[in-house]
Amino acid sequence: MDIVFFGNGISEDPNPDKIRLGGKGSNLCRMAALGIPVPPGIVLPTTLCRDYMERGHLPPELMPSVHEKLKKVEEATGRHFANPHKPLLVSVRSGAPVSMPGMMDTILNLGLNADTVKGMVLETGDERFVLDSYRRFIQMFGDVVLGIPHHSFEEILNHHKKKSDAVQDTDLKPAALRDIIDDYRNLVQKGTGQPFPDDPFMQLRMAVEAVFRSWNNERAIYYRRLNHIPESYGTAVNVQSMVFGNMGNTSGTGVCFTRNPSTGERKFYGEFLINAQGEDVVAGIRTPQKIEELEREMPDVYKELLRIQALLESHYRDMQDIEFTVQQGKLYLLQTRNGKRTSAASLKIACDMVDEKLIDPRTALLRIEAEGLPALLAPIFDPTEVNAARSEKRVLAKGLNAGPGAASGYAVFQSAHAVEMAAKGKTPLLVRMETSPDDIKGMQHSSGILTARGGMTSHAAVVARGMNKPCVVGCSALIVHEEHGYADIVTEEGRHVRINEGDEVSIDGTSGEVFVGRMQTVDSDIQRAMRGEIDPASSWMARDFFQVMKWADEVRRLRVRANADTPQDANVARSFGAEGIGLCRTEHMFFGPERLPFMQQMILARTQEERELALKRLLPFQREDFERLFEAMAGYPVTIRLLDPPLHEFLPHTDEQIAELSQKIGVTEEHIRERASTLKESNPMLGHRGCRLGITYPEITRMQVRAILEAACKSRKKNIHVHPEIMVPLVGHRKELSLQKELLEVEAKRLLAEFDCHVDYKIGTMIEVPRAALTADQIAIDASFFSFGTNDLTQMTLGFSRDDSEPFLREYLRLGVYERNPFATVDESGVGEMIRIALQKGKSARHDLKTGVCGEQGGDPTSIRFFNRVGLDYVSCSPYRVPVARLAAAQAVLASE
Ligand code: PEP
Ligand code: MG
User: Fold this and answer.
1) What angle, 0 to 180 degrees and rounded to 10, lies between the N-to-C axes of helices 882-896 and 861-870?
2) 285 falls in which pLDDT band (50, 70, 90)?
3) Is 397 exposed, middle or buried (0-12, 13-18, 19+ CB in 10 A)?
4) HEC string of 78-113?
5) CB burial of residue 33 (10 Å; 0-12, 13-18, 19+)
6) How far is CA 55 from the centre of its chain?
7) 583 C-beta closer than 6 A to ligand 1
8) pLDDT at residue 459 above 80?
9) Looking at the DSSP assignment, which residues form a beta bridge with residue 240?
10) 376 pLDDT more than 70
């Protein structure tokens, strides 16, 4: 049994590994070895949790080994477990390899029973304190280990508080506490049919088992799915000697960060509570004091804390999140870990640490979550509207600015309601007195989170930052009646305002303000700097962002292009650094009221003449758009895909749509109905689309190549370098591509001669039908490039309809059939294998084959790691994800090293 002892300057494990000892255990060992005061304790490694899961019970030799190791803790503390003379009390906590805040269970004050209580009273002379510790212990143990609902204990507590006129828990006198303890014990006897366990060894055994078990509680499983933490990790258990922050006014407890987790500012930052225990700060029940005030209250402790936080930051070379307790003037560190931070803070901290020479740019790149960048690019509230709202007294209240970004939404007061509302396509904003781990789903589905209680390190604040959501906490003007579906606010001017469920509210996570109604938003500094509207040097966020992008571009191998269908998209994409267009879906160029009717007319045409008439109307739109795309992407490749309209997306459905179309194109409603019903397909995604359309109606392909080359020649004449890549969609058989290629080449030759122009164009294909992947060597003969259409390739490889798989896919993800949504993250072992085969076969036939991906997965960091590994040349994604892809592509290179 490799149980590890730490404390008094010693770590038995010289190289405490997080995967084995869990994050908390590993860091406690490191701190002990650094000579930082930590309460001595032991770590039961994660291997034991896996063992427990397999057996379904604790191995018989485990507890004797724990007892043996505990002797070291007794020695280090001079106290004795299960002994009334100077009893050793311990905390039992989970500690996973990856931090899962609040997801699993903690038990404090373990080891108390009637005898040890007596001993403690003799020792401390503070009966109230000891009885209060005992009652907390029974409550936590009863809830976590014995499964008695927390609220049953709370009811007893509240009853006695009322009875003895106590406002705070600390107002309860020993007599009242004794009654509470009796009632708690009776509750346990009634609830479990057994007396509360008095033997500390039994308590310890049951607590260890409960922590192992909590690895598989519902909220921990949900959190792991959400954050892609492997199920196989298991949790370690930390059994640590107790220190007490609630032994009067020379004691206290606090949570701090070595830098501001919200803005990234390099300033020691945190909160504490005098005379409080353990989870009081995090639970957000009392609003804590700022850490600076500790200097006045306990100057020596403050000085020591400053020294330790600096030591920890330079040891870990990263921002640390620290928990400490002061017991009668003596400081103990309970935990340190890399602090969770907002995207803005991660950007600033990474760049600052490079400036401070703590880390190098490559490490900095790994410190910024690519998935967090969209939040930085996200709009902020329009400052003019904010000013107007202030003068119109639409500011309801102000809380703490716990997570930046701005959000509007419909107020909901219960997490379940947020989930329901989001399912209906509306955007909820979760408003609570405080949040608990049970709210995680509701938070996930909300645009933002607002709480009445809590500080910057409360559950709501920490989790919202992790989710990168706008969040305002500690908004004390707010009283939320969660059960009754409303909240009351008394504004600064003394107005009473009621918010009912479904009312629109807005929160600004940067200023902490809460507004009534919806607010307009404007672009962030980064966006404005990207468009050249402001000088990046004038805003730290823009400056750091540009710096990180530059580092990423120096490291990455994959090129990054954008999927852009309109000139506007192309301009945004360029400003975000796209190196060309990887997919222009030409059918998307015909959305909009002037264009759609002709597209529909083309689809509904009964004869070639009718179709050509519609195509003639479409040609100028298409040509002009192409010209502007070439201009936006001057010098870069532009991949234009031939028409691929799934027919059902373009046919008119309702009577109203049919009447409108009939008016616009001058065809009777009856005709439209008849044609639409002939064209109706039972399986449109596998129907008459892609190259099947261009093969059966060659005039469509002819019109498109004309539009492309006319636009290219016009651009050439303006001296713009154009590199059109004409892409044939939905090819499954070599012959499909060769038929289209022949048509394209004949037409291109004719047109270029007609315009007397030379254009360097390429013809290639999408690989999105499994047959194409499996016969890629034949297909490559006619294709100078492959672009993997992983949307269709996933649909067809898995046999999951892109449009209809949501209901069962949700269940599949829950059951772990697939670990991630295959339409968001490439399914490496299935679809990925198709890609590998196609690459290998394609390159065997054509060694200079260019390859890329243009499905949704092209902008997903995990998929990008895979695309980098298999050697694609580029990824293409939506314009707003281009910065994500640039960073992820660099991280992929660094990870592979
Ligand atoms: C694809 O199938 O991956 C693709 C990009 O094409 P579309 O989504 O338009 O079918
Ligand atoms: Mg497709």
Assistant:
1) 50
2) low
3) buried
4) CCEECCCCCEECEEEEEECCCCCCCCCCEEEEECCC
5) middle
6) 34
7) yes
8) no
9) 41, 91
10) yes
- What are the pLDDT digits (tens) for 85-94? 999 999 999 9
* pLDDT tens track for 714-728: 999 999 999 999 999
Mutate to test the pocket of ligand 1, among 565, 583, 586 (most ligand atoms within 8 A of CB): 583
Rounded CA gap, 634 and 420, in Å? 47
Nearest to 583, CA basis, from 742, 728, 755, 433: 728
Among 561, 584, 585, say which to mutate for ligand 1: greatest number of ligand atoms within 8 Å of CB: 585
Which position has the token pair 């600033």?
A: 348
Tell me what the mean pLDDT of segment 545-558 comes to: 97
Query: From the alpha carbon of 644, which atom of ligand 1 is closest?
Result: 9
Q: Which two tokens stand for residue 804?
A: 């209809």
Separation of CA 600 and ligand 2 centre (Å): 20
pTM of the full structure: 0.82
Active-site residues, by number, are 459, 854
Nearest to 128 by CA among 240, 275, 273, 254: 275
Nearest Cα residue to atom 3 of ligand 1:
789
3-state helix, strand, coil in the chain (%, to 5): 50, 15, 35
Ligand 1 touching residue 102 (CB < 6 A): no
Give every strand in the sheet of 504-508, ordered side by side.
Answer: 395-398, 513-516, 504-508, 406-412, 428-432, 449-451, 471-473, 400-403
- The gap from C-alpha 365 to its chain's centroid, in whole angstroms, comes to 18
First to last CA, the chain: 35
Tokens encoding 62: 């485990």
- Which helix H or strand E contains 42, and what residues bound it? strand 41-44
Let me know: does 725 contact 677? Beta carbons within 8 Å.
no
582: Cβ below 6 Å to ligand 1? no
How far is CA 555 from each of CA 362, 783, 897, rounded to the nearest angstrom? 8, 30, 11
Q: Return the amino acid letter for 311.
A: L
Tokens 């020695």, located at residue: 75
The yes-or-no verdict on residue 348 having pLDDT over 80 is yes
Q: What is the token pair recorded at 885?
A: 């892809």
Number of Cβ within 10 Å of residue 716's Cβ equals 18
Res 456: pLDDT: 66
Q: Is the beta carbon of 639 within 6 A of some atom in ligand 1?
A: no
